[in-house]
Amino acid sequence: MQIVRLKTELSEEELLKIAKKREPQFKAIPGIVQKYYVKLDGQGEYGGVYIWDSAKSLQEFRESELAASIPKAYKVVEPPTVEILDVLFELRE
What we know:
Elements: E1 2-7, H1 12-27, E2 32-39, E3 45-52, H2 55-62, H3 65-68, H4 70-73, E4 81-84
């Protein structure tokens, strides 16, 4: 699992418009099981929670042009924070 948190100068409406436009690119990523777009507590703070089928798929994405394009696409105003977590077990399969 990967959690990305970012702060943007975009309005929520603008951010969602960009996210929807980029949605097909994210759906095409090999190994991504699910991505959740989330709104955080602070002004202009949003994030993505990614569920991967393997550590290899996650690493390939992190090295991709699509991943590198996130800060520019969303007009990020400070470096995003990224957390990588190992899932111990699933409640539901």
